Amino acid sequence: MPTTLEFERMVRGASLRVTRPRVAVLAAVHDLPHADTDTIIEAVRATFGEVSHQAVYDVLRALTEASLLRRIQPRGSNARYESRVGDNHHHVVCRSCGAIADVDRAVIDVPDLAAADRAGYEIDEAEVFYWGRCPRCVTAAAARGSSRDTSRW
Fold first, then answer.
1. Where does residue 150 fall: left (phi above 0), alpha (psi -120 to 50 degrees), or beta otherwise?
2. Which residues does residue 94 pair with via DSSP β-bridges, in sequence order?
């Protein structure tokens, strides 16, 4: 994980003013990939002290707009944030517990994007979510003798 000085350099390098909340949020997201806002707020408060929800929301928006963070929102989930940016990777989501993991960009069959090009769109990113069960939930279901655990988080 980067040091505080490295986080400060990242913020400054994105042409943002370095503030304690920005550095604390950036550190929290680096430490807790795919965390939701409430989890990030708790982590920031644990290291930084009292900070308002609005301040964290504002920092998340600023860091996302500056491409220091990436916001994802799997169907049925609150927004999540991650520090892995710029490589257009994908995600796998556990249908049972909601755990999210990174998936390196894969070559997949996609709908015909030529139609988007003909409509004048310039495609610069694809967002793909794979859905299934994480190893922990598969193991737990096997221990219960259940072949499919389709509970939703």
1. alpha
2. 132
SS3 percent helix, strand, coil of the chain, rounded to 5, is 40, 15, 45
Alpha carbon separation from 111 to 15, 60, 107, 116 (Å, rounded): 37, 32, 13, 10
137 CA to centre of own chain: 21
Q: How confident is the model at residue 89 (pLDDT cuts 50, 70, 90)?
A: confident
For the stretch 69-85, pLDDT in tens is 999 999 988 999 999 99
Using DSSP's 3-state secondary structure scheme, residue 132 falls into strand
pTM for the full model? 0.81
- Give the type of residue at 14: A
Which ranges constitute the DSSP H helices of 66-121? 114-118
CA distance linking residue 48 with residue 57, whole number of Å: 15
pLDDT digits (tens, 9 = 90+) for 114-128: 666 667 777 767 778
